[in-house]
Amino acid sequence: MAGQQFQYDDSGNTFFYFLTSFVGLIVIPATYYLWPRDQNAEQIRLKNIRKVYGRCMWYRLRLLKPQPNIIPTVKKIVLLAGWALFLFLAYKVSKTDREYQEYNPYEVLNLDPGATVAEIKKQYRLLSLKYHPDKGGDEVMFMRIAKAYAALTDEESRKNWEEFGNPDGPQATSFGIALPAWIVDQKNSILVLLVYGLAFMVILPVVVGSWWYRSIRYSGDQILIRTTQIYTYFVYKTRNMDMKRLIMVLAGASEFDPQYNKDATSRPTDNILIPQLIREIGSINLKKNEPPLTCPYSLKARVLLLSHLARMKIPETLEEDQQFMLKKCPALLQEMVNVICQLIIMARSREEREFRAPTLASLENCMKLSQMAVQGLQQFKSPLLQLPHIEEDNLRRVSNHKKIFLSLQWGYILIKPSIYKIKTIQDLVSLKESDRHNLLHFLEDEKYEEVMAVLGSFPYVTMDIKSQVLDDEDSNNITVGSLVTVLVKLTRQTMAEVFEKEQSICAAEEQPAEDGQGDTNKNRTKGGWQQKSKGPKKTAKSKKKKPLKKKPTPVPLPQSKQQKQKQANGVVGSEAVVKEDEEEVSDKGSDSEEEETNRESQSEKDDGSDRDSDREQDEKQNKDDEAEWQELQQSIQRKERALLETKSKITHPVYSLYFPEEKQEWWWLYIADRKEQTLISMPYHVCTLKDTEEVELKFPAPGKPGNYQYTVFLRSDSYMGLDQIKPLKLEVHEAKPVPENHPQWDTAIEGDEDQEDSEGFEDSFEEEEEEEEGDD
């Protein structure tokens, strides 16, 4: 081997290749991920939903008062500069000459391949006179011309050129380094070392250290670790946390402290404005000394949150601080839910009596406070205040709605007033269209249409629950200590779809009832919810003549049963019984042959029917096994799909009149025992419910057999009054005893089996010897 040589790029051409590739690898993916999305598309989306969300605060802040954002402009400038650099480098590379190309002496001498020796000599003389150093020519070019002339005229040089590609024979393998030669030049060594030291010893450690310092202060959900510690301490200290205490603990988060969060602000005017709001609210406990709950930043956050829940008008200087605080509330409440769940798990795992778990009421109050913060309502306010154009003054008209019914009783027309108590969104939806319009008669037509559009966008979620035990032979049999898996299928619809169903039902009721159809229509549910009895029904239409019930025909009993029945009637009919017995005995002689043949045919039929029943049972068992196997495979596929798929958390925007940020519609799903007030399964935060979603809730079965009544809760983190509750019944059986001779646990060692066989063989051999001795 001729050897190896490493050389830097003197001309800088290879460095341009390297730099072009490096810049392209950065610019192309950065453009795809960092280029700002089309702002016009967002404006079009907002305009399309203006009819429903036009009065929301977040909508007005984004559309009517768009905040100037310089970040997209900076991104565009940086990306365009990167593409300009990439195109410049690509142009530079395209114009560079190829240095490493195949050596061709004909090109050096400017001759065509196959030229004669005379032509080669003639051309060599002309070029020698032109490039000879003594004549003032180029020395390097002259050496190349001489080398090419030798390769074409000298036999040895020509042979080397044909074999090794060079007239001088095999050359050393050279490796080019894509860095310019001036980097290793001795003149620039100090400058290069200074740049390396500044980049790798100052800039890089500072960047990594600052990133690490920021990352260790936050949890995975971008919540300060100090906030989690504060929540853990106060939740552990206050086992049963009411709403006032919960608001106080929520406001103690370090996210609102300017010392730990630069986005939080503290103004000198707060010392004047905050006491004024405290006097207006009048229900703030300031006597307890519990830092940081009594710190100025915590007191300010608490006052701003209480004023938001009361829908109070605050000074303009505090509006920005209130919006910042409200944007942090959903994430902070989710962190508090996580803290409560962790403390419940710790209390179950420990056997110490001193460690008490938080109550279920504390967990549910966190979820309710999230709804209150998004909708800007206090705890016991009516959910109807979530709708536009409905104020406190209108609730009296809505909550007690009078209606007159006409009923026909015994030929007289009676006028009966009834009162509809409209307290929830479901009550309002369950009304007919005419009743709703009469109920909201104080609204103008445009406002009424807007209310109906908003109400139609509200979610309506149905739950389909199925409990089973996976990885078991009988998945439907729940035994003591088994791991129960409750599969909940959530289907999300809008109230507008419920309106359509309700209108179709009402139209069917208005039509003349045909044979038996009037009763079935009235048993249907209106608006997706079961129609409650809120007054006397229209008996003129509902009452019909009931068909007379036919008397059941007596079924003939067997002869033995007839005899017993007759004997039970008393001694009066004894003679008749005797006569009948005599007749039966006389008839037996004539019918004996027929009975034997009938018995034989019946036995054959019974054998055939037994075989058919056994075959049917086997087929049914096989079908059940296949169904269980398919369910198990489907559950495994769901788990794999959940691991592979990453669903978007953008579901549906929430209608909120006073929340400053566009909130997505999320839910909490969990199982609890309402009687014992205990949490059975940990809450699952459903963040991807767009149309349908399947969630698996797992928990260990109770330790004692019996029937248990649980409840599945689906709570919204944004809407009040739309929570769903569904019962869950579990029948827990005793665990099956472990079989003694199960083939799975037959772990006999081969050596032991051989030893047992040898001992048995020895015993039999001794018995044979004893028998032979006895014969002798």
TrEMBL record:
Residues 598-624 have a biased composition (Basic and acidic residues). GO terms for cellular component: Sec62/Sec63 complex. The keyword Protein transport applies. It holds the Pfam family DnaJ. SUPFAM superfamilies: Chaperone J-domain, E set domains, Sec63 N-terminal domain-like. The chain crosses the membrane at residues 15-35, 77-94, 190-213. This is Translocation protein SEC63 homolog isoform X1. It comes from Ursus maritimus (Polar bear).
